[in-house]
Amino acid sequence: MNDIPSATQHSKIKLFVDDAKVHKRIASEHDRALLLEDMERIDDWAKRNSMEFNTSKFQLLHHGSNKELKKPYTLKSETEVESSGEVRDLGILIDGSLSWKAHISDIVKKAKKMASWILRSFSTRKPEHMLLLYKAYVRPHIEYCSSLWSPHLIGEIERLEAIQRSFTHTLEGCDNLDYWDRLKFLGLWSLQRRRDRFKILTMWKIWRGLLPNHSNITFRNSPRHGPSAERPLGKATLKSVNTMIYNSFTSSAIALFNAMPAHMKTQESLAGAKSALDSFLAGIPDKPPVKGYCCPNNNSVSSWLSTGLSTKVRPSA
Q: How far apart are CA 96 and CA 219, in angstroms?
């Protein structure tokens, strides 16, 4: 499998275990022909190696607004690769508009199903028992790879938060508390705040070389402010594309990382970075968007810090 990339000439290919993704920018019929040529080359590679692709698993995903170029591809073997509305890639649902609506709907459905199973199967409502189950069986569904698909739309944030909100409402001592107070009582962060935390720690890992810098993020270091990164700005003609870029990981995560105190970003170990970050976040209010609640802002760490919020931070030793 590792030598499949040598079979292509005009496209880029990415491999993971036994999955292969071929992608190319298509701006004309000529580009379509070049992509089809590479697909044929990959098919020939399989035959030379006495292999056969599972054509039933072929998927085609188009991005962009040019409908004339959104046509299926037919190989010499008469295999037709038709366009898919959405594709699941390593557990993440991606659609042609690069919206995460379908993925969020999918994980909300799974998390609700698991939460209902827990509540039906266990009679206890003691927080120490139920939170253990919630963290093990429910929360992973709504946090897997969240740095990639983390929503910025209030409605989608509310949908995700509603899972934790409804589950914690059933716990002992929480029935007379609103959601914001329940978070404090149970020692929980909102799911939104946890996604911000994941982004910051992912940026720290990229800065430290613990994760590959596939997005080619440019870092700079200051003796006073510590490391920071250059935030990309959308330069597309369409406003929707610029909005997508602005709220993507490589933009929103950089804004969060740059806003962190130097003593957090300059920690030498992951444990030290987590401890320093948690101490800093403890001083920032956590009031996620909830229907019927009067929220002062969208609750992102960036929003709170942009208001000039004064946080009492205990530097990590």
A: 31
Please give the model's pTM, rounded to 2 decimal places. Answer: 0.87
Name the phi and psi angles at 171, rounded to 5: -85, 155
What separation in angstroms does the CA of 48 have from each of 35, 44, 52? 20, 6, 10
Task: Give the orientation angle of helix 249-259 with respect to helix 191-208, to 10 degrees.
Answer: 90
Digit-coded pLDDT (tens) for 90-131: 899 999 888 899 999 999 999 999 999 999 999 999 999 999
The tens digit of pLDDT for each residue in 208-226 reads 999 999 899 999 999 888 9
The strand pairing partners of 15, in sequence order, are: 20
- pLDDT the model gives residue 133: 98
Neighbours of 171 (CB within 10 A): 21
User: Alpha-carbon distance 199 to 270, whole Å?
Assistant: 14
C-beta separation of 226 from 232 below 8 A: no
Beta bridge partners, 92, equal 89
SS3 238: coil
Radius of gyration of the chain (CA): 23
The DSSP code for 221 is E
Give how far the C-alpha of residue 83 lies from the chain's centroid of Cα atoms, to the nearest Å: 24
Structure tokens at 207: 């800065």
